[in-house]
Amino acid sequence: MELTPMQYKDYIWPHNPRTYTISYERKVAVHKVPFGRYAMQDLGLGRRVMRGEGEFYGEGAYEEFKKLASVFYHGGPGVLLHPVWQSANAYFVELSLAQEPRKDYVRYTFTFWEDSSGYKQKLEPVVKTGTGGGQSTGGSVPASAQYHTVVRGETLWGIAQGQGITLGELLVLNPQLKNPNVIQPGQKIRVR
Q: Which of 13, 98, 106, 148 has its CA 20 to 30 A from that of 177?
């Protein structure tokens, strides 16, 4: 099974990182009461943290790491598309070299924190207006919308490449997709 490449903002990993871990956190407060007892209060879910380790190898490995580092330096959250887990709005909070880099081999570690504050109930597609060349968002599907029917073995990433658009643009056109790694043969995917 070929997995979709990991993507954050506009950076696409040339090959997926070697290891991933994800941790979920729940905030719980403990209050001491008389006679050695205590009461616990559930304060809700905390952030999800995704950590991993990867490597770039071959000619241009260090240059590829520098591209990833430049994404790290641009602040603010972005969409993290992971080959297995549900996509998430996340902050890129750590990027470390795991050994002395070489031109042809770089081993690195990374950490993302999920940002749940910016979620919307549904994504609004970006629609180009015909007059001024600007863009607006709207909930209606234009009459010129085009669709692709999924065939066995296809991935959203492959469909996006075939249509000449990014995976992020494809996901904006298809807000009904909750997990970009799960599509079914016969499913209609909007591509324009």
A: 13
Residues constituting the chain: 192
Q: Which residues of the chain have pLDDT under 50?
A: 118-123, 126, 128-138
Helices (H) and strands (E) in the chain, counts: 3, 13
Please tell me the pTM assigned to this model: 0.57
Contact 114, 124 (CB under 8 A): no
DSSP state of 160: H
Query: How far is the C-alpha of 129 from the C-alpha of 126, rounded, in Å?
Result: 9
DSSP SS3 for 150: coil
State both tokens at 163. 């249509």
Residue 114: left if φ>0, alpha if ψ -120 to 50, beta else—which one? beta
- Phi-psi sector, 151: left (phi>0), alpha (psi -120 to 50), beta: beta
